[in-house]
Design brief:
Largest sheet: 8 strands, parallel, barrel
Structural class: alpha/beta
CATH topology: TIM Barrel
Shape: globular
Strand content: 5-15%
CATH architecture: Alpha-Beta Barrel
Number of helices: 12
CATH superfamily: Aldolase class I
CATH class: Alpha Beta
Length: about 290
C-alpha cells in the first residue's frame, strides 16, 4: 500500500447534497490525470465531519464503484460516535476497501487508555486493516513513541497517517517500527518526510498536484535530493498560494478550471467570492 494517496475532496451541490457525477469526475481525474497510487476517502479534505452518516456511506459507495480496482482505497471512518465508526468500517470493508483509517477521538480530552480502547473496539468489530490518523493540531491528541507502540501491538493496526511537524518523533517511529506503514500528512513537508523513509504520503493538494508529489517521493527515494528539493519548492509555492486563498475551496476551483465538476463546499464552509474564484484560476495558470 505504499505511495502517494490523494485525500479526496468531495463535490457537493448548492444545497450540501453529494454531487455524484462531480465526485466521479474527481475520482477519475485523480486516477487518470494525477496518476496517484490511492485515494483516502472521507477525510478532512472530503469535509467528512460536516456530513451525515448516510452521506458518508454514499461517498464510500460512489468512490469504490468509480475506482473499482484501479488504485488502493482507504476509508476514513473515525467519528466521536463509536457505533458510527464501527458501522462505517463494516460498510467500507464489505465494499472492498483495502484498509480503514480513523482519526483519534477529539473534542473531549480523552486520555490514552480511552484512545486505545477506541481503536481496539473498532477492530473487534471490523475485519480490516487500520491506519491511525494522527493530527494533533486539530484533535489535541498527542501520542508518544511508547503509546504508538502500544497501539501497534494490535496486529490489525498496520500504520499511521502522521500529520504533525514533530519529525523527531517521526524518525523515532520509523526506527522503532520498520514493519509499520508511515504516511506523511503534510504536503509541504513531503521531501523531509521522504528522506526519513516514510512509505508514502496522503495529501489534499494531491487532488491537483499529485504528479509532482510522486516525483518528489520517487526522487527522494532514489537519493536525488537536489532535484526533489526544486520540485518541493514549486509545490510549496503552489501550496502557499492555495492556503492564502482558501484551501479546499481553491482546490475545487482549480479542478473546475481543469473541467472537473468539483461543486461547492458544504456549509458552514463558505464558497469563494468572485474575486477569489479568479485568483484560483490564476493560481492554476501560474503554478500548475
Amino acid at each position: 500500500m505504499n505511495g502517494i494517496y490523494t485525500a479526496l475532496v468531495c463535490s457537493f451541490d448548492e444545497n450540501g447534497k453529494v454531487n455524484e457525477a462531480g465526485l466521479r469526475e474527481i475520482v477519475r481525474y485523480n486516477i487518470d490525470v494525477q496518476q496517484v497510487d490511492g485515494l483516502y476517502v472521507n477525510g478532512s479534505s472530503g469535509e467528512n465531519f460536516l456530513m451525515s452518516t448516510d452521506q458518508k456511506r454514499k461517498v464510500f459507495e460512489i468512490v469504490k464503484d468509480e475506482a473499482k480496482q484501479d488504485v488502493k482505497l482507504i476509508a476514513q471512518i473515525g467519528a466521536l460516535d463509536l457505533d458510527e465508526a464501527i458501522a462505517l468500517g463494516q460498510f467500507a470493508t464489505e465494499l472492498g476497501y483495502d484498509a480503514v483509517s480513523a482519526v483519534t477521538p477529539f473534542y473531549y480530552r480523552f486520555d490514552f487508555e480511552e484512545v486505545k480502547d477506541y481503536y481496539n473496539t473498532i477492530l473487534e468489530h471490523v475485519d480490516n486493516k487500520m491506519i491511525i490518523y494522527s493530527i494533533p493540531a486539530l484533535t489535541g491528541v498527542n501520542m508518544s513513541l511508547d503509546q504508538f507502540g502500544e497501539l501497534f501491538q494490535n496486529e490489525k493496526i498496520i500504520g499511521v497517517k502522521f500529520t504533525a511537524p514533530d519529525f523527531f518523533l517521526l524518525e523515532r517511529i520509523r526506527h522503532a517500527f520498520p514493519d509499520k506503514l508511515i504516511f506523511s500528512g503534510f504536503d509541504e513537508m513531503l521531501l523531509s518526510a521522504a528522506v526519513l523513509d516514510v512509505d508514502g504520503a496522503i495529501g489534499s493538494t494531491f487532488n491537483v498536484n499529485g504528479r509532482r508529489a510522486k516525483q518528489i517521493f520517487e526522487l527522494a527515494k532514489d537519493g536525488q535530493i537536489k532535484e526533489a528539493r526544486e520540485i518541493q519548492k514549486q509545490t510549496n509555492d503552489l501550496i502557499a498560494a492555495i492556503l492564502a486563498n482558501g484551501l479546499y475551496q481553491t482546490i475545487k476551483e482549480i479542478l473546475k478550471s481543469e473541467g472537473v465538476d468539483a461543486g461547492y463546499s458544504k456549509k458552514p464552509m463558505k464558497n469563494l467570492s468572485p474575486d477569489r474564484v479568479e485568483t484560483a484560476k490564476e493560481i492554476a495558470k501560474t503554478y500548475l
